[in-house]
Amino acid sequence: MFYRPEDGHGLPHNPFNAIVAPRPIGWISSRGADGSDNLAPYSFFNAVAYVPPQVMFASTSAKPDRDGTKDTVANIRDTGVFCVNIVERAAAAAMNRTSGPWPRDTDEFTDAAIARAECATIACARVADAPAALECRLIQIVELRGAHNFLVLGEVTGVHMRDDCVVDGRFDVTRFHPLARLGYKDYTAVSEVFSLERPGE
């Protein structure tokens, strides 16, 4: 099968995000200029550089009360900071709860009964029990083609790792099974790890 996106795929559901999968989930916490906390998952998320460490996520929809975007991007525009919380398999239900189209004054930490802690390098909350959390300062928000599509780039200024996930000096994902997004309504969790050496190593 071949299709041009501009012509449509002719399938019952869009296959694009099933093809580009699995995708790590950035559970993004942000704080509004009024001090209110927000927490929402984004599956267009990844690390993009080592030195300095940088990450990105993209927001692709909008809420009527947020001027063409969503709470997360609006908050980051106002404050210039955010935190990426890594989602473990055990937190799937809580993460999913925070994905709802709640009013801007909803505190997802409270709504989903998620423990929060203050970040160390930025004025923002983080998921207290997350396997890892990356505190970030905004580098740039890029407006992408299409309605409501924004790419957010941040520099990591602080890294939290849960003690039980550090084994023999390595961050061990098998201790918590990172949750990842597939297509449609599907998810997966990392349960198997193998190593390869690059040629010449």
UniProtKB/TrEMBL annotation:
This is Flavin reductase. InterPro entries: Flavin_Rdtase-like_dom, Split_barrel_FMN-bd. Pfam families: Flavin_Reduct. One of its GO terms (molecular function) is oxidoreductase activity, acting on the CH-NH group of donors, NAD or NADP as acceptor. Residues 18-173 form the Flavin reductase like domain.
